TrEMBL record:
Protein name: GNAT family protein
UniProt source species: Nocardioides aestuarii
Gene3D superfamilies in the cross-refs: 3.40.630.30
Lineage, broadest ranks: Bacteria, Bacillati, Actinomycetota, Actinomycetes, Propionibacteriales
Signal peptide as annotated in the record: none
A Pfam family annotated for this UniProt entry: Acetyltransf_3
């Protein structure tokens, strides 16, 4: 039997409430730097989102919100006098899946949508993301979509449970995404 894939949909206030139901689950929080979820901030984000300044998408299965992904637009690096080349030309992606629905391809579908929007609709030239090295599901999502491990930081990240641990940074360029066929 084939398990149906998630539907990807823009955020709504009702979906925000569903996401808040699992976003603070310990299995989710253990991989984030921020250890508290500000419910009002999430509600505001979902309510005010209009797509002009980034990307936010919700994955649903049977109408239930089971994951989210986002693109935050940021400045790249570059020399003074050439700002149009690098100011607001990069993105950072993030994604989260309800642990009850992990391992069903939802995270990969969400990250694929985030990258497609980053390079398509938002016209960014490079997208990055970071994770704890022990967060295998997260870096597998990135590698499945053609992102490159550009940094392996040795014991560069402090984890509440494990102390100093390794971290990874991944990235992909627009031209690599276009050639990759992901
Ligand atoms: C990272 C996360 C979004 C992945 O979502 P998901 O829907 O489970 O991912 P997918 O089902 O698309 O699986 C992607 C790959 O990870 C693997 N994977 C999934 N869960 C795994 C786990 N717990 N341990 C090891 N690998 C895992 C899958 O097998 C798949 O690899 P494969 O195709 O080689 O088999 C999800 O685990 C999550 O929300 N984690 C907590 C929040 C988080 O870490 N966000 C990212 C912060 S950097």
């Amino acid at each position: 039997m084939t398990i149906p894939g998630p539907e990807l949909t823009p955020p709504t206030p009702a979906l925000a409430e569903q996401v808040l139901g699992w976003r603070s689950h310990p299995e989710v929080l253990r991989w984030f730097l921020m250890q508290e979820v500000d419910a009002d901030e999430v509600r505001d984000w979902f309510t005010s989102y209009d797509g002009t300044d980034g990307h936010l998408v919700v994955a649903t299965l049977d109408g239930r919100a089971v994951g989210t992904a986002s693109v935050r637009v940021a400045d790249g690096m570059g020399q003074q006098g050439h700002e149009p080349e690098f100011v607001r030309r990069e993105g950072w992606i993030g994604y989260t899946v309800d642990p009850a629905y992990a391992g069903r391809g939802v995270g990969t579908a969400l990250a694929r949508d985030a990258l497609a929007n980053a390079f398509g609709r938002l016209g960014l030239r490079r997208v990055q993301a970071g994770c704890f090295a022990a967060n295998t599901a997260s870096w597998k999502v990135m590698e499945k979509l053609g992102m490159r491990r550009e940094q392996h930081g040795v014991r560069d990240s402090f984890h509440a449970e494990h102390g100093w641990v390794d971290g990874y940074t991944y990235a992909i360029l627009a031209e690599e995404w276009e050639q990759g066929g992901h």
